[in-house]
Please model this.
Amino acid sequence: MNSLNPNSLLQHIVDGRRMTEQEFLFLHEQGDLMEIARAANQVRDQRYPGNIITFVIDRNINYTNICSCECKFCAFYRKPHDADAYVIDQPTLYDKVEEAFQLGASQLMIQGGLNEALGIEFYEEMFRGIKSRYDMTIHSLTAPEIVFIARQSGLSIKDTLLRLQAAGLDSLPGGGAEVLHDEVRQAISPNKISSRKWLEVMRLAHSINMPSTATMMMGSVDRLMHRLHHLQQIRSLQDETGGFRAFIAWTYQPGNNALMGDKISSLAYLRFLALARLYLDNIDHIQGSWVTQGKRIGQLTLFFGAEDLGSIMIEENVVRSAGLTYRMKKEEMKDIIRAAGKIPALRNTSYDLLQIYQPEQGEDIC
Model:
Protein backbone atom coordinates (compact mmCIF):
# COMPACT_ATOMS: atom_id res chain seq x y z
CA MET A 1 0.00 0.00 0.00
CA ASN A 2 2.95 2.35 0.59
CA SER A 3 3.61 2.41 -3.17
CA LEU A 4 0.01 3.35 -3.89
CA ASN A 5 -0.95 7.00 -3.65
CA PRO A 6 -4.29 7.94 -2.07
CA ASN A 7 -5.95 8.90 -5.35
CA SER A 8 -5.00 5.64 -7.03
CA LEU A 9 -6.31 3.74 -4.03
CA LEU A 10 -9.57 5.64 -4.18
CA GLN A 11 -9.97 4.76 -7.84
CA HIS A 12 -9.49 1.06 -7.08
CA ILE A 13 -12.24 1.31 -4.45
CA VAL A 14 -14.55 3.19 -6.83
CA ASP A 15 -13.93 0.40 -9.34
CA GLY A 16 -15.27 -2.11 -6.83
CA ARG A 17 -12.44 -3.42 -4.68
CA ARG A 18 -13.35 -3.73 -0.97
CA MET A 19 -11.53 -1.29 1.30
CA THR A 20 -9.39 -2.77 4.06
CA GLU A 21 -9.08 -1.32 7.55
CA GLN A 22 -5.47 -0.32 6.86
CA GLU A 23 -6.60 1.52 3.72
CA PHE A 24 -9.31 3.30 5.69
CA LEU A 25 -6.69 4.60 8.13
CA PHE A 26 -4.32 5.51 5.29
CA LEU A 27 -7.00 7.51 3.47
CA HIS A 28 -8.23 9.14 6.67
CA GLU A 29 -4.74 10.40 7.46
CA GLN A 30 -3.30 11.07 3.99
CA GLY A 31 -6.19 11.32 1.57
CA ASP A 32 -7.29 14.68 0.22
CA LEU A 33 -10.72 15.54 1.61
CA MET A 34 -12.20 16.58 -1.71
CA GLU A 35 -10.82 13.52 -3.52
CA ILE A 36 -12.37 11.29 -0.85
CA ALA A 37 -15.65 13.16 -1.30
CA ARG A 38 -15.44 12.78 -5.08
CA ALA A 39 -14.91 9.02 -4.75
CA ALA A 40 -17.79 8.70 -2.27
CA ASN A 41 -20.06 10.57 -4.67
CA GLN A 42 -19.00 8.33 -7.56
CA VAL A 43 -19.86 5.21 -5.57
CA ARG A 44 -23.17 6.77 -4.54
CA ASP A 45 -24.01 7.80 -8.09
CA GLN A 46 -23.12 4.37 -9.50
CA ARG A 47 -25.64 2.84 -7.12
CA TYR A 48 -28.26 5.62 -7.49
CA PRO A 49 -27.81 7.19 -10.95
CA GLY A 50 -30.98 9.27 -10.94
CA ASN A 51 -29.56 12.23 -8.95
CA ILE A 52 -32.33 11.67 -6.38
CA ILE A 53 -31.93 12.47 -2.67
CA THR A 54 -34.55 11.03 -0.36
CA PHE A 55 -36.17 11.96 2.94
CA VAL A 56 -38.95 10.55 5.09
CA ILE A 57 -41.70 12.11 7.20
CA ASP A 58 -41.94 10.54 10.62
CA ARG A 59 -42.49 11.36 14.25
CA ASN A 60 -40.21 10.48 17.14
CA ILE A 61 -42.41 9.70 20.14
CA ASN A 62 -40.77 9.14 23.52
CA TYR A 63 -43.12 6.97 25.58
CA THR A 64 -41.21 7.55 28.82
CA ASN A 65 -38.23 9.56 30.03
CA ILE A 66 -37.73 7.38 33.12
CA CYS A 67 -34.53 5.41 32.65
CA SER A 68 -32.35 3.26 34.86
CA CYS A 69 -29.40 3.36 32.47
CA GLU A 70 -28.23 6.90 33.30
CA CYS A 71 -25.85 7.32 30.35
CA LYS A 72 -23.38 10.14 30.92
CA PHE A 73 -24.04 11.71 27.52
CA CYS A 74 -27.84 11.82 27.94
CA ALA A 75 -29.70 14.93 29.06
CA PHE A 76 -33.14 13.44 28.47
CA TYR A 77 -33.54 10.74 31.14
CA ARG A 78 -35.24 11.23 34.51
CA LYS A 79 -35.50 9.17 37.68
CA PRO A 80 -38.93 7.80 38.66
CA HIS A 81 -39.62 10.41 41.33
CA ASP A 82 -38.45 13.47 39.36
CA ALA A 83 -41.16 16.08 38.96
CA ASP A 84 -41.04 15.92 35.15
CA ALA A 85 -40.80 12.14 34.86
CA TYR A 86 -43.58 10.60 32.75
CA VAL A 87 -45.04 7.59 30.99
CA ILE A 88 -47.16 8.55 28.00
CA ASP A 89 -50.91 7.99 28.33
CA GLN A 90 -53.03 6.65 25.48
CA PRO A 91 -54.84 9.91 24.63
CA THR A 92 -51.51 11.75 24.33
CA LEU A 93 -50.02 8.93 22.28
CA TYR A 94 -52.91 8.81 19.83
CA ASP A 95 -53.00 12.61 19.56
CA LYS A 96 -49.33 12.57 18.55
CA VAL A 97 -49.87 9.75 16.05
CA GLU A 98 -52.93 11.46 14.57
CA GLU A 99 -51.05 14.73 14.14
CA ALA A 100 -48.17 12.90 12.44
CA PHE A 101 -50.62 11.08 10.18
CA GLN A 102 -52.27 14.34 9.17
CA LEU A 103 -48.84 15.81 8.36
CA GLY A 104 -48.11 12.96 5.98
CA ALA A 105 -45.92 10.77 8.18
CA SER A 106 -45.48 7.19 7.04
CA GLN A 107 -43.25 6.11 9.93
CA LEU A 108 -43.27 6.24 13.72
CA MET A 109 -40.06 6.05 15.71
CA ILE A 110 -41.17 5.20 19.25
CA GLN A 111 -38.37 5.07 21.82
CA GLY A 112 -37.95 5.69 25.51
CA GLY A 113 -36.00 5.07 28.66
CA LEU A 114 -35.42 1.76 30.40
CA ASN A 115 -38.38 2.03 32.74
CA GLU A 116 -38.56 -0.80 35.27
CA ALA A 117 -42.31 -0.32 35.71
CA LEU A 118 -43.06 -1.39 32.11
CA GLY A 119 -43.31 -4.97 30.87
CA ILE A 120 -43.76 -6.32 27.36
CA GLU A 121 -47.55 -6.00 27.61
CA PHE A 122 -47.21 -2.20 27.64
CA TYR A 123 -45.44 -2.26 24.28
CA GLU A 124 -47.74 -4.87 22.76
CA GLU A 125 -50.79 -2.83 23.70
CA MET A 126 -49.22 0.35 22.34
CA PHE A 127 -48.27 -1.19 18.99
CA ARG A 128 -51.56 -3.02 18.52
CA GLY A 129 -53.49 0.14 19.34
CA ILE A 130 -51.58 2.14 16.75
CA LYS A 131 -51.84 -0.53 14.05
CA SER A 132 -55.58 -0.89 14.59
CA ARG A 133 -56.03 2.83 13.91
CA TYR A 134 -53.33 3.78 11.40
CA ASP A 135 -51.54 2.31 8.40
CA MET A 136 -48.08 3.44 9.49
CA THR A 137 -44.73 1.70 9.83
CA ILE A 138 -43.56 1.22 13.42
CA HIS A 139 -39.77 1.63 13.22
CA SER A 140 -39.16 1.60 16.93
CA LEU A 141 -37.31 0.40 20.04
CA THR A 142 -33.53 0.28 20.23
CA ALA A 143 -31.47 -2.80 21.03
CA PRO A 144 -31.00 -1.75 24.70
CA GLU A 145 -34.78 -1.43 25.02
CA ILE A 146 -35.29 -4.88 23.51
CA VAL A 147 -32.82 -6.46 25.94
CA PHE A 148 -34.38 -4.59 28.85
CA ILE A 149 -37.94 -5.62 27.90
CA ALA A 150 -36.80 -9.25 27.57
CA ARG A 151 -35.18 -9.19 31.00
CA GLN A 152 -38.13 -7.45 32.64
CA SER A 153 -40.55 -9.94 31.12
CA GLY A 154 -38.51 -13.11 31.66
CA LEU A 155 -38.25 -13.83 27.95
CA SER A 156 -35.47 -14.59 25.51
CA ILE A 157 -34.49 -11.81 23.14
CA LYS A 158 -35.82 -13.72 20.14
CA ASP A 159 -39.17 -14.43 21.82
CA THR A 160 -39.40 -10.77 22.78
CA LEU A 161 -38.80 -9.73 19.18
CA LEU A 162 -41.34 -12.25 17.89
CA ARG A 163 -44.03 -11.04 20.30
CA LEU A 164 -43.37 -7.39 19.47
CA GLN A 165 -43.36 -8.20 15.76
CA ALA A 166 -46.74 -9.92 16.11
CA ALA A 167 -48.04 -6.80 17.89
CA GLY A 168 -46.95 -4.52 15.03
CA LEU A 169 -43.23 -3.73 15.35
CA ASP A 170 -41.91 -3.57 11.78
CA SER A 171 -38.22 -2.69 12.10
CA LEU A 172 -35.56 -1.55 14.57
CA PRO A 173 -33.66 1.74 14.55
CA GLY A 174 -29.96 1.55 15.33
CA GLY A 175 -30.07 3.62 18.50
CA GLY A 176 -28.11 2.49 21.52
CA ALA A 177 -25.08 1.54 19.43
CA GLU A 178 -23.18 4.73 20.24
CA VAL A 179 -19.75 3.29 19.33
CA LEU A 180 -19.48 -0.50 19.24
CA HIS A 181 -16.31 -0.70 21.27
CA ASP A 182 -16.60 -1.58 24.93
CA GLU A 183 -13.77 0.73 25.97
CA VAL A 184 -15.93 3.64 24.82
CA ARG A 185 -19.16 2.18 26.17
CA GLN A 186 -17.65 1.69 29.62
CA ALA A 187 -16.69 5.36 29.68
CA ILE A 188 -19.96 6.88 28.48
CA SER A 189 -22.70 4.32 29.22
CA PRO A 190 -21.43 1.67 31.67
CA ASN A 191 -24.94 0.42 32.45
CA LYS A 192 -25.95 -0.07 28.84
CA ILE A 193 -25.66 -3.36 26.93
CA SER A 194 -22.31 -4.43 25.52
CA SER A 195 -21.31 -4.21 21.87
CA ARG A 196 -21.73 -7.98 21.58
CA LYS A 197 -25.28 -7.80 22.92
CA TRP A 198 -26.24 -4.97 20.55
CA LEU A 199 -25.00 -7.05 17.63
CA GLU A 200 -26.85 -10.10 18.96
CA VAL A 201 -30.15 -8.21 19.01
CA MET A 202 -29.63 -7.09 15.43
CA ARG A 203 -28.64 -10.58 14.30
CA LEU A 204 -31.76 -12.06 15.89
CA ALA A 205 -34.00 -9.34 14.44
CA HIS A 206 -32.62 -9.99 10.97
CA SER A 207 -33.17 -13.75 11.46
CA ILE A 208 -36.94 -13.17 11.81
CA ASN A 209 -37.06 -10.84 8.79
CA MET A 210 -37.13 -7.69 10.90
CA PRO A 211 -34.75 -5.23 9.20
CA SER A 212 -32.94 -2.44 11.00
CA THR A 213 -30.63 0.48 10.60
CA ALA A 214 -27.11 0.88 12.00
CA THR A 215 -26.09 4.09 13.73
CA MET A 216 -23.06 5.63 15.37
CA MET A 217 -22.78 8.49 17.84
CA MET A 218 -19.27 9.78 17.21
CA GLY A 219 -17.18 12.36 19.00
CA SER A 220 -17.67 11.75 22.74
CA VAL A 221 -14.55 10.00 24.08
CA ASP A 222 -14.09 7.79 21.03
CA ARG A 223 -11.15 7.98 18.67
CA LEU A 224 -10.68 6.90 15.07
CA MET A 225 -9.65 3.35 16.03
CA HIS A 226 -12.93 2.96 17.93
CA ARG A 227 -15.00 4.28 15.04
CA LEU A 228 -13.27 2.00 12.55
CA HIS A 229 -13.90 -0.97 14.86
CA HIS A 230 -17.57 0.01 14.84
CA LEU A 231 -17.63 0.00 11.03
CA GLN A 232 -15.89 -3.38 10.99
CA GLN A 233 -18.57 -4.88 13.22
CA ILE A 234 -21.39 -3.43 11.13
CA ARG A 235 -19.92 -4.57 7.82
CA SER A 236 -19.21 -8.04 9.16
CA LEU A 237 -22.76 -8.53 10.44
CA GLN A 238 -24.17 -7.19 7.19
CA ASP A 239 -22.11 -9.76 5.29
CA GLU A 240 -23.76 -12.39 7.47
CA THR A 241 -27.40 -11.23 7.52
CA GLY A 242 -27.98 -8.44 4.98
CA GLY A 243 -30.48 -6.94 7.41
CA PHE A 244 -29.20 -3.35 7.74
CA ARG A 245 -31.01 -0.94 5.47
CA ALA A 246 -28.90 2.11 6.21
CA PHE A 247 -25.98 3.55 8.16
CA ILE A 248 -26.43 6.83 10.02
CA ALA A 249 -23.57 8.59 11.79
CA TRP A 250 -24.39 11.52 14.04
CA THR A 251 -22.29 13.59 16.38
CA TYR A 252 -22.27 13.77 20.15
CA GLN A 253 -23.77 16.96 21.60
CA PRO A 254 -21.89 18.15 24.73
CA GLY A 255 -24.68 19.97 26.55
CA ASN A 256 -26.66 19.53 29.78
CA ASN A 257 -25.14 16.13 30.57
CA ALA A 258 -22.54 14.56 32.87
CA LEU A 259 -20.04 13.87 30.08
CA MET A 260 -19.76 17.34 28.51
CA GLY A 261 -16.57 17.75 26.43
CA ASP A 262 -16.13 19.26 22.97
CA LYS A 263 -18.10 18.91 19.76
CA ILE A 264 -16.45 17.16 16.82
CA SER A 265 -15.75 19.42 13.84
CA SER A 266 -17.98 19.34 10.79
CA LEU A 267 -15.00 18.62 8.54
CA ALA A 268 -14.08 15.58 10.63
CA TYR A 269 -17.68 14.39 10.42
CA LEU A 270 -17.81 14.87 6.63
CA ARG A 271 -14.50 13.06 6.08
CA PHE A 272 -15.71 10.11 8.14
CA LEU A 273 -19.08 10.04 6.37
CA ALA A 274 -17.45 9.87 2.93
CA LEU A 275 -15.07 7.12 4.04
CA ALA A 276 -18.00 5.21 5.55
CA ARG A 277 -19.73 5.28 2.14
CA LEU A 278 -16.61 3.75 0.62
CA TYR A 279 -15.99 1.21 3.39
CA LEU A 280 -19.58 0.01 3.89
CA ASP A 281 -19.88 -1.44 0.41
CA ASN A 282 -22.65 -3.82 1.50
CA ILE A 283 -25.02 -1.23 2.99
CA ASP A 284 -27.25 0.49 0.46
CA HIS A 285 -28.13 3.75 2.16
CA ILE A 286 -25.90 6.32 3.86
CA GLN A 287 -27.78 9.09 5.64
CA GLY A 288 -26.47 12.59 6.21
CA SER A 289 -27.20 14.14 9.59
CA TRP A 290 -28.71 17.61 9.78
CA VAL A 291 -30.30 17.09 13.21
CA THR A 292 -26.94 17.37 15.00
CA GLN A 293 -24.91 19.16 12.33
CA GLY A 294 -27.43 21.74 11.18
CA LYS A 295 -29.14 22.25 7.84
CA ARG A 296 -26.16 23.59 5.89
CA ILE A 297 -23.80 20.80 6.91
CA GLY A 298 -26.65 18.39 6.26
CA GLN A 299 -26.79 19.81 2.75
CA LEU A 300 -23.02 19.37 2.40
CA THR A 301 -23.33 15.66 3.17
CA LEU A 302 -24.84 15.34 -0.32
CA PHE A 303 -21.36 16.17 -1.65
CA PHE A 304 -19.75 13.55 0.62
CA GLY A 305 -21.59 10.42 -0.44
CA ALA A 306 -24.94 10.65 1.35
CA GLU A 307 -28.09 9.97 -0.69
CA ASP A 308 -30.63 10.39 2.10
CA LEU A 309 -31.28 13.17 4.63
CA GLY A 310 -33.47 11.22 7.02
CA SER A 311 -36.57 12.76 8.50
CA ILE A 312 -37.94 16.26 8.75
CA MET A 313 -38.46 15.31 12.43
CA ILE A 314 -41.95 16.37 13.42
CA GLU A 315 -40.85 15.80 17.00
CA GLU A 316 -37.41 15.20 18.54
CA ASN A 317 -36.63 15.42 22.25
CA VAL A 318 -33.35 13.67 23.06
CA VAL A 319 -30.99 15.93 21.08
CA ARG A 320 -33.08 18.95 22.05
CA SER A 321 -32.50 18.08 25.72
CA ALA A 322 -28.78 18.58 25.12
CA GLY A 323 -29.52 22.19 24.15
CA LEU A 324 -29.52 21.81 20.36
CA THR A 325 -32.62 22.52 18.33
CA TYR A 326 -32.85 22.36 14.55
CA ARG A 327 -36.24 22.24 12.84
CA MET A 328 -37.03 21.37 9.25
CA LYS A 329 -40.21 21.77 7.25
CA LYS A 330 -40.97 19.66 4.21
CA GLU A 331 -40.52 22.60 1.83
CA GLU A 332 -37.18 23.48 3.46
CA MET A 333 -35.97 19.93 2.96
CA LYS A 334 -36.93 20.04 -0.71
CA ASP A 335 -35.27 23.45 -1.15
CA ILE A 336 -32.01 22.30 0.49
CA ILE A 337 -31.84 19.26 -1.77
CA ARG A 338 -32.65 21.29 -4.89
CA ALA A 339 -30.05 23.94 -3.99
CA ALA A 340 -27.45 21.16 -4.01
CA GLY A 341 -28.40 20.36 -7.61
CA LYS A 342 -30.31 17.23 -6.66
CA ILE A 343 -33.89 16.02 -7.04
CA PRO A 344 -35.80 15.59 -3.76
CA ALA A 345 -37.97 12.53 -3.24
CA LEU A 346 -40.18 11.39 -0.41
CA ARG A 347 -39.60 7.78 0.71
CA ASN A 348 -40.95 5.33 3.24
CA THR A 349 -39.08 3.21 5.80
CA SER A 350 -38.22 0.60 3.14
CA TYR A 351 -36.76 3.35 0.91
CA ASP A 352 -39.51 2.94 -1.66
CA LEU A 353 -40.08 6.26 -3.43
CA LEU A 354 -43.48 7.76 -2.69
CA GLN A 355 -43.11 11.06 -4.59
CA ILE A 356 -40.42 12.63 -6.74
CA TYR A 357 -40.42 16.43 -6.80
CA GLN A 358 -39.32 17.72 -10.20
CA PRO A 359 -38.19 21.37 -9.87
CA GLU A 360 -38.38 22.30 -13.51
CA GLN A 361 -42.01 21.28 -13.82
CA GLY A 362 -43.11 22.64 -10.47
CA GLU A 363 -45.35 19.68 -9.77
CA ASP A 364 -45.17 16.32 -8.04
CA ILE A 365 -44.61 13.22 -10.13
CA CYS A 366 -45.50 9.89 -8.53
